[in-house]
Amino acid sequence: MNENIIDQLSLEKGMQVDLNEGWHKIISRQFGGNPGRGFAELIQNLIDSYDSTVPMEERKGDIHTGPSWISITDYGSGLGRNKLQLLTTLGGTDKAGDKNKIGAFGIGFFSIFNPKLSTKKVEVLTCCEGQTVKLVFTITETKTPPDIAYELMAKKFKFSTQIKVHFEQAHGVTDCISAMNRALKFYPCNINVNGVPFQSIWQSADERNHFSFSTESIKGFVQPSTYDYRVSLMCKYENLGTMSMNAFLTGGHGTKYTIDDLSSNKIPCLPETHVYVNDNDLTVTISRDSFYLDHNWRRLKTYLSKVLLDYLGDKIQDLSADDILANMFILRDDLFQYLKTKDRSAVASAIVHLAHEKVFRIDEKEKLFSLADIYRHHNPKLPLFFSPGGSNLRWLGGDFKHDFIVLPPQTLYSEEIDSFWDILFKALFKDVVNLESIIHEAARLQELVDRKIISRDALKTESKVIGSHKLSAVETHFLNDIKELLSLETVKQVIETSLQLKIKSVLPVFIKFENNNTYISSGLLDKDGVPIDDQFISNLKEDQRHQAGPVHLLLGLSQDHPFVQKLIHSKNPHRAYFSLTYIAHELALSQKLLAPYSSFFHLVKNKLANNVRRALIENIAQSSKN
């Protein structure tokens, strides 16, 4: 049976194409949501009718409209026999691979036949090898290709090609005019619309003396805007779209919409600015809704960073204090080079201005200081100390070597960028200390101790054991409950395993912690009430300190801490269980505050809390069985 089927098949014509169906799909779906864009394709053909050596500004054309028709006329080179043949060939083009031409796919002319335009006839008059040829495309059925008639005409015209489109309904003209206005404004050509010169954005920019820039392949200008930072991008003056500067810089991939997007490309922060740029070297692959850019896009971004830096120099006096600080952050590497060399001739004027902008306060000083002032007065042998929120200025009671403390101004950008001031000051001064976060940086604290900027003794929190005779009955009862759990062999083993330390006993006591900057709830201390650190105990088995024997530890509880007070006065019969679980978790942060230069808190955080909870649960389970 299969053999009979094969015998009856006839495939000698190979792959077949349903021309009518293909035609209908192409003209319907090409710019389906905006059929008037078909006329924009004719504008591209007008521009491409000129030789690439003719500057854009010297290319000209005419557009006329009537109640139910629109025409477009160019004065380029006309259509030779080959081009006439290609005009009637779907997908036929001689522009493919020509980087000087806008079109490339050979379907632009056919888009004017979109059924949504109600096109009924298209007339083409063109100069072909010294003769005037007229082609008439007549629509007889919307789903099939038009009928084509052609003739030679004796009359000569001054133009090279004229295309006149007739519509069944007037909206076809309106749609084309709307698309024309959107597209034509980006071309710096001389186009008349109904006898009136059409003004492009380029001519408007020249008249208004906007900041402009150009290279052999790039041309653009910058103008103030009521919108956010935006870019209108063109290739061969075809508008690819208007987007935020952030989206342009990232290509829409991983856009943060913060100044991080600008910073990674060294693009100055210029709110309410619109950049128009055309780059003829971009290799643009256009789909219906998007476009793809090649490596020249990165080259364009590098060029724009230089251009906009110059523009920043012209406009910097108009920027807000927030935007001044944002540009310091973005241009921090250039600022560092200037502060280091003090060579004004080697940097843009904007960098010099940013370096000398007086926006910083210094603790106990009334006047404002600039980055250049700070750089000049700072002792390079000491870290630059700063406090973004103006807190912790009396860190360690002021017992640390420093010349001054910088107080940066408040800025919206520091709220959207993590470690805004740390990043900026590290780039400029390298050796910096943020007084608001230093207590959490064990390695940095150890380095400051080694450099004798601070002393280890100054870092330790003073603690004082509160004697039992000073405790109330409920406080004594609470300590006894905790002591009973700590004496359990399972809990003791958990503590020994977690701390890698032989324990003789763990005694709970109330402690008064003397620390002006933090509120400490608990802590592990030696038998003398001194917070233990990595000199007493190691986080690693192989670094275990040599001991004479098992040690006594104190589990210190801050008597005044609100949550500790809540635990003390709890009537829950199982309060000791959840109290000890809470304390085990709190130890991680508390030990870090007690001995901030020590890495000891890591082992507490990672092991002790969960293991204590597990041991307590097992104890409860065993008790219920008994």
Total individual domains: 4
On the 0 to 100 scale, the average pLDDT is 84
Write down the Rg: 39 Å
| Biggest sheet statistics | 8 strands, mixed
Gap from first CA to last CA: 83 Å
- What is the fold-level CATH name, i.e. the topology of the largest domain? Heat Shock Protein 90
CATH architecture of the largest domain: 2-Layer Sandwich
- Note poorly predicted spans: 101-106, 539-546
Q: What is the CATH C level class of the largest domain, in words?
A: Alpha Beta
Strand content: 15-25%
Spatial sequence of strands, sheet with the most strands: 5-4-3-6-2-1-7-8
Helix content: 25-40%
Report the CATH superfamily of the largest domain: Histidine kinase-like ATPase, C-terminal domain
| Helix count from the secondary structure assignment | 22
Q: Strand pairing plus helix content: what structural class?
A: alpha+beta
Count the beta strands.
23
The general outline is: elongated
Notes on the structure:
This protein is an alpha+beta fold and 626 residues long. The chain contains 22 helices and 23 strands. The radius of gyration is 39 Å and the shape is elongated. An 8-stranded mixed β-sheet has the order 5-4-3-6-2-1-7-8, covered by helices on one side. Strands 9-10-13-11-12 form a 5-stranded mixed β-sheet, sandwiched between helices. It folds into 4 domains: 19-198, Heat Shock Protein 90 (2-Layer Sandwich), CATH 3.30.565.10; 202-317, Ribosomal Protein S5, domain 2 (2-Layer Sandwich); 326-458, no CATH class; 462-625. The termini are far apart.
